[in-house]
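Entry for the shared binder. Reason: the reviewer on the internal report wants the predicted structure included alongside the sequence.
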Amino acid sequence: MELRLDGLNITVEDPYVQENDVFVDFEFDTLEGGEVKFYLKVYVGKEEYDCRFSMRIIYIVDTENEIFDEEYIMVKKAVQMISESMIEIIIVLDSLIKRSQERLN
């Protein structure tokens, strides 16, 4: 399976929120050619409505025509791949937001 980032939108909500919980909602669509498009809404902070920043991410997973007995097996494998990439993005963005906030203070 191959993963590629297809879209990223970042919104700084409240940089003063100190909590570091991560909330993720996702949906997916099966495309032609063995590709699956994942739409993620990610919130970092206390909760969805009280967060430091939010992101909307689109990933395309190419299953390379791998055959899965059950759809949930494909989703589980794709989510594992997506999680690694998403965590890297969160770490970088969170660091940038915190440093920017420190400079303003």
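Summary line for the report: The radius of gyration is 16 Å.
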